[in-house]
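Pasting as-is:
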Amino acid sequence: MENTYRQFIEQSVEFPQDAFEVKNDALQFHGIDLMALVKEYGTPLKLNYLPSIGQQIEKARRYFDKAIDQLHYRGNYTYCYCTKSSHFSFVLDEVLKSNVELETSSAYDIYILRRLFEQGKINKETLLVHNGYKRELYAQLIADLINDGFNSVPVLDNQKELELFKTMVTKPCNIGIRIATGEEPQSNYYTARLGLRHRRIQSFYEEHIADSELFNLKMLHFFIDNGIEDSLYYWNELDKCLGVYCKLKRVCPTLDSLNIGGGFPVKQSLAEEFDYKSLTFEIVSHIKRFCEKEDIEEPNLLTEFGSYTVAESGATIYSIIDQKKQNDVEWWNMIDSSFITTLPDSWAINKRFILLAINNWDEPYERVNLGGLTCDNQDYYNVEAHVNNIYLPKYNEAKPLCIGFFNTGAYQNALGGYGGIQHCLIPSPKQILVERDEKGQLKTSLFAPEQGPESMLKTLGY
């Protein structure tokens, strides 16, 4: 008798776990009957389980608060949501229920902030951290916030930005400086393009900020592209940043905050396990030890968690519409959408997501490749993060198979050009929101239907 797909998964990884379990031959996600969703809305579809967002925020807060308490760390902790991970209103609404602060990356973020203020979802005390390279429009919109009394902290990416703000800001304000970090050895470049060189930061402060009546240097911003990780590379870069902070603190009494940027890692496979609690404890302990050695008071800590906040809320579901045998060893399962348009990170940077069958768990399994609908050779997915192959229940036309990619809630809609023109005019899939009511019962709603030809033709000028 052939092993079933359920047996294969249980032998490969610890299962069930976290948000995943199987009932009646089908996968449940956060208690959601995914096949019931498929029957109601069809595929392809994207769903967001909104309660996951608040749960992630509260977990991170507990990790940091506990570490600060146990270590008698003298600074406090602030959680910022990085809006570029997902700008959707349903995400910001859920994030702001947890009373977080916000971080922006571009000029059009500011229009969202203004709308949130008009709706009473943020106030002028909400901390707004402004990162990114600032051209004149972005700088002016930030300055307008400052002049209107908002708690905005522009983080300088380069020296020219300060000159821009000098011509725009009329009220005293806090500012930050981003430190340029080194990249990992296998990178194509040595130093991140954003931020000021660490050897230049103190002289820049002394020459241009120290005597200013408008600007108080409040924050040093440290960002690693890979996010927070337990690696020699991360600790070395953090030490360089702390060295800059301690030297700067000796000449800058207003400096009291360190934004450690980046974010916690997000699972790409059910085989991955991250000890967030221990990682947080080590970060806080590392900073405390460094500052004690330098006889500098520990800084307040800020994080900008984007992917960690929203990734695990998202799932993307497809139907297998056909199977093609192209040679003696390759079977191609064709999905009813495109990876290039709906999971662009899988194509652009070879990012992996948790992939599981939605139904037919008690059927035999086989090794397959997954192909998208576009005519592009790169529109495929054929590697799992933990087994270097893809195994799914055997294709059976009489038992249509659905598959799901999980932890897709960050970046994919924006990178795929949500609502715009997609490669080969493949439509954007429908978007489903899943929430819980006051009694804990699941409720679903259609946020957006599948993109139709009318919107495409209008965008294309027809």
